[in-house]
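The freezer alarm interrupted the setup, so I double-checked each line after restarting. Inputs confirmed:
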Amino acid sequence: MRKGEVMSSSSGTLFRVTTFGESHGRAVGAIVDGCPPRLPLSAADLQPQLDRRRPGQSPLTSARAEEDAVSILSGVDQGLTLGSPIALLIENTDTRPQDYASSAKGPRPSHADFTYRLKYGLSAQSGGGRASARETVARVAAGAVAEKFLHITHQVDIVAWVSAIGGIEAPAPSAHNFTRAQVDATAVRCPDPTAARQMSQAIVEAQKAGDSLGGIITCCCQNIPVGWGEPIFDKLDALLAQAMHSIPAVNGFEVGAGFSSARQRGPEHNDLFSAQSGRLVPTTNRDGGIQGGLSNGAPILFRVAFKPTASIAKEQQTVTYDGQPLSLKLTGRHDACVVPRAVPIVEAMAALVLADAALRA
Amino acid sequence: MRKGEVMSSSSGTLFRVTTFGESHGRAVGAIVDGCPPRLPLSAADLQPQLDRRRPGQSPLTSARAEEDAVSILSGVDQGLTLGSPIALLIENTDTRPQDYASSAKGPRPSHADFTYRLKYGLSAQSGGGRASARETVARVAAGAVAEKFLHITHQVDIVAWVSAIGGIEAPAPSAHNFTRAQVDATAVRCPDPTAARQMSQAIVEAQKAGDSLGGIITCCCQNIPVGWGEPIFDKLDALLAQAMHSIPAVNGFEVGAGFSSARQRGPEHNDLFSAQSGRLVPTTNRDGGIQGGLSNGAPILFRVAFKPTASIAKEQQTVTYDGQPLSLKLTGRHDACVVPRAVPIVEAMAALVLADAALRA
Amino acid sequence: MRKGEVMSSSSGTLFRVTTFGESHGRAVGAIVDGCPPRLPLSAADLQPQLDRRRPGQSPLTSARAEEDAVSILSGVDQGLTLGSPIALLIENTDTRPQDYASSAKGPRPSHADFTYRLKYGLSAQSGGGRASARETVARVAAGAVAEKFLHITHQVDIVAWVSAIGGIEAPAPSAHNFTRAQVDATAVRCPDPTAARQMSQAIVEAQKAGDSLGGIITCCCQNIPVGWGEPIFDKLDALLAQAMHSIPAVNGFEVGAGFSSARQRGPEHNDLFSAQSGRLVPTTNRDGGIQGGLSNGAPILFRVAFKPTASIAKEQQTVTYDGQPLSLKLTGRHDACVVPRAVPIVEAMAALVLADAALRA
Amino acid sequence: MRKGEVMSSSSGTLFRVTTFGESHGRAVGAIVDGCPPRLPLSAADLQPQLDRRRPGQSPLTSARAEEDAVSILSGVDQGLTLGSPIALLIENTDTRPQDYASSAKGPRPSHADFTYRLKYGLSAQSGGGRASARETVARVAAGAVAEKFLHITHQVDIVAWVSAIGGIEAPAPSAHNFTRAQVDATAVRCPDPTAARQMSQAIVEAQKAGDSLGGIITCCCQNIPVGWGEPIFDKLDALLAQAMHSIPAVNGFEVGAGFSSARQRGPEHNDLFSAQSGRLVPTTNRDGGIQGGLSNGAPILFRVAFKPTASIAKEQQTVTYDGQPLSLKLTGRHDACVVPRAVPIVEAMAALVLADAALRA
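Predicted 3D structure, all chains:
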């Protein structure tokens, strides 16, 4: 045993979540520790987001057949939370470890196989590892608890959508107040119908070609009171940045004007204040709703970049663990583009960060 | 007292740093709790990075005259660390709270004034607040301790540089192994001489116009062993994302190919492995040295976007705290572009994240 | 929602445990987050300690019929730990919330009813609360994981026993190296046969009288390497003191000579060193194996005081929540003395503290 | 570097304290991170408790001449806290590392020398280490901040006193509401005049004989609202137990009836409730103000056992680090009995725990 082999699966300060479970083990789940008591909560509150993340929901997504039905094992009595830990369980029903035989000889490129094996001495490529995106089922379930709490106590509204896939970028919308129904109108979850059509087509073509695509998700959180977040290390955008980068395949995060603000001048960027019904509000939102690390009452707006799915059917020239040349063609059930299914994951991670900020605030 | 008023100024799990001090108070400083014993350390190890962050170091930077001389109050005896907390103190010598009178009536746009006042009931605009970039002096001092530890134990090498200012972007370098001397060859800290010249000129012009500019810093960390980071919530890129977004004025973070990976296809993005002297290494580095949240032995490469300085001399039409129209012209000593001085801050935050990862690994 | 209503059910820094589940809900369980990979582990390793804690194991204990069979839902594959969170589940099969009707009107004396109700707005008296000793099932399961880890990596041996019940105190043993088999030779778990007989009789009489008894458990941890623990706030005895006081009904903790050291003089108390096979060892153990907060290689020896069971059948004159006189006779299935069944709980909490200390050390 | 060498000097969840400084270094101090804003605070609020802990305050205590004057370096502006970290500094003025030459050859019995040296590879015996009771200066300063916060927001009143020294035990008082003035009426800080006289005499005699004495401190905390503490691992008594055991030389802790409750029967122990002015209150206080880990509104009452000072002038037969026989006679300035000076330390640690509980509640 070396210390370095230990891994932590917990996040949050007061509203804490711990996820557990391997992709090809018995079950995945989460413990939500720190949810306040006396909130109405049932499995029916959690299932819709799990269904949005579920494989097999459209022809664009992986064919793994998982019901992903969630059970609440503790922390709720007679439809109300008790304040005690909420244990959430989702059983795995369609595991196929045998699909991973081809990758047992060498590390899959741009995957966690290589680093897991060197750190933990374990094969993550069995699909049984924690690195699988199946771990995010538990995050979505826990995030739905956080969302329920935020909605009841502060009417917080969190909606994410796909704004780019491959090279196809949806035009900037005039407003960011989409509903989830609007987002779900297309299988790619892009509310711009023209872009959505092009994206769908691109995914289908990539799938046929054994190829994969990346993309960008935009997320908007409304009704956040002024003052959530901490001003030094735990700035609200810093915690969101960590949460989003903790999602598999994420390579970038930006808030408000983001990277484009690096090209702006002060007068172009600065959000001036005006008075509306006795309250000060910023008239523009280039800071994305966060100033000095604290929410300023404007919608919190951020974007998350996903790289293309690392698992591709196309042949790749890599090496075995012994350093011998290996021509790798991955089988198994993989999405050519994970971005549409990642929408509820982004919402879940945002909800977990905001619920913790609400309790700390 | 409401709970929400509390702020935390600590970061890290095993290698922990807490910063303290207000911009216009007696002193700023940091406690480094968790640095291993028996490492050679003296103030002379810390001063160079403080000097690189110091105001007044070039005509491009603020004229505040601070020596920023650091004292080590504890944790070091006879030139060696003791394993006990290292207290670092930097006195403030050139404070001018009176400069902030003009902004006492209304919140400065895109500053922390508004959110601080609503959350803490305090005026941050006196310059005495924690939101001032002066707080980063303490981070730079603590980061230099982390860097010394990383260098001695693992020969880790961290170098950041300016890759864009305003709209001027330096061409992508063929390699990322600059030295700090190469970076410091120009006052703007951009190792491309042509771009550096244009950037300098742009800053001088913005300064004259009472305007400000944003920019991008690229950072490369070399000699990181395989396996640093945690695979779920505390992925190494997630912790770096948080650390960078905790720096004032940062609006975006990306690792490896970052946002551009959203436009890539799998075969373009994937880092194939090859064998070199008996070890597997990725032949490209689009994942920026991190796979599945763990370092993969390749250089860790990331970019940080800074918005333009919020404090500008140009007149801004905003409102007072009472909602009355306010025409604001900010005086005081501000950098038209903070990005060159932020280079050692980015390095410091990277070092703090990596030192903690080293102890957890 | 007020913040104060939140409760935390987690403990530990690197080897972390979170328990969940209500006494009269569906299940209780624990997540062990931070257990190193590649350790052999199965449910069979955990069941013996759960059986030692189980109700109905002897005529001296509560008649609630729970099998307390533990399932491992995650974190173990092919008999080896994966390094990922280990989820442990124990279903509740014999719940009887109706038994608690009599205590719904007023708070049971010296119970958690009153404080829970005022803090959480919830009735803990339904037996559904977290205050029930049933929560300790989860600790025993998690502690058995910790014990396995400690045993494999360091041959650590943890054995606790009953040293006093009511006024009956077993004579101080000449050595503290009992085995669990020796401890379990009597139902009261006191290795002194004479005292054990008297204790058994005292419990039977108390039971008949509708009365209850307190007692003391002594615990000895062997083969702890020098240097576990932290020297300032997280001294090893401090962490053990917290862990033991977190067990329901515990009112006191002492290490080594404990309270009797307050009556000693320096030369009587001080543990002199001698050299044995090239290593320094203390020749006596009045410090209980811990000096300056760090283990010193001698057995860690501590004692834990339990108050008498608060739930008694004897009539008690108290008041309702409305302040009206209430004559309370508690029914339900309660132990007249919890101390024998608390032996594996003390061992479990010791193991959790030591496993965390091992990873931090 | 091995990981085990790291030490943590921080404590608390929301109201956090980190202490720093070595006994024979430049200074000792603390950072209080998480103290709410807008509380009146000045060094004059902190100095009285530092003076009560100071050496040289009476003929019974060590002759080290330290003013222990505290400076507030940050976190306070115009007499009010800012919510930001409060840095407290106390310079060391009378250091004498040479006094420790005699113990350089072998570990002092029942000291931290042996364990520190094996863990950190450092000589703690130079007096420069963190194991010195001088570290508690910083706790007393930080505790005084916590006390100010508790007093202003909740009128919390914390008073500790000496209840036993050597074998001399003060009779149980009829009430526990002493003032600090009453406690300080005698140099031994025992409010019972007869016992105080005997204790003083015993200390003087021990001092002459080159011997030392242990003792017991009782502490009473009044006006604690119902519901502070957490019900599972962070029970209020558990956190107090940890805090008290983190004080050097502490070997035992008990709350309410404590160890004597192990000899009680249910009806003797249980605190019945009665109604007083519309509120339920326990009519007795055998649980020491804490039930189910949460404060119940009654005074919190606990006792702390201190072992005799380990540093004694009397000759001790021990061994050198090389295992050679060593006859050790310790010189230096040590208290024959630390218990009277530990009274403000116990109060400080209680205040730190309660302030954190107040913020979490």
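Quick read of the result. The longest strand of chain A covers residues 157-165.
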